[in-house]
Design brief:
109 residues; mainly alpha; elongated; AzlD domain-containing protein; Brnchd-chn_aa_trnsp_AzlD; transmembrane helix
């Protein structure tokens, strides 16, 4: 089996370089029009709450309706809501509520 020629390798590297640079630079070409978008401002303001609602529904959908199943979920839900009202930080709320849920499930189960 023969090795590809130097010209072929340089051509392939040039194509790789141009495509990679283009893919990295392309998002910056759309920054100015997107910053003034009212839709993106709306999504930026409401997506963290929406994600928390989706995670809550997903968690509670598989929770058995017994004391052992519902108590950790209810405590974690209350902790998440409390953390969010206290800190107004979705990441803190999600991590705190999830951590408490995992801890209670391990201790209770």
């Amino acid at each position: 089996m023969t090795m590809p020629s130097t010209g072929y390798l340089l051509g392939a590297l040039t194509v790789i370089l141009v495509v990679t640079f283009g893919l990295r630079a392309l998002p910056f070409a759309f920054v100015a029009p997107v910053r003034s978008s009212s839709l993106l401002r709306f999504l930026g303001a409401h997506m963290p709450v929406g994600i928390m609602v989706i995670l809550t529904v997903y968690t509670l959908a598989g929770t058995p309706l017994t004391v052992a199943g519902a108590a950790p979920a209810a405590a974690a839900l209350a902790a998440s809501i409390g953390l969010h009202l206290w800190r107004s930080n979705a990441l803190v709320s999600i991590i705190g509520g999830t951590g408490l849920y995992v801890l209670l499930v391990q201790l209770w189960g």
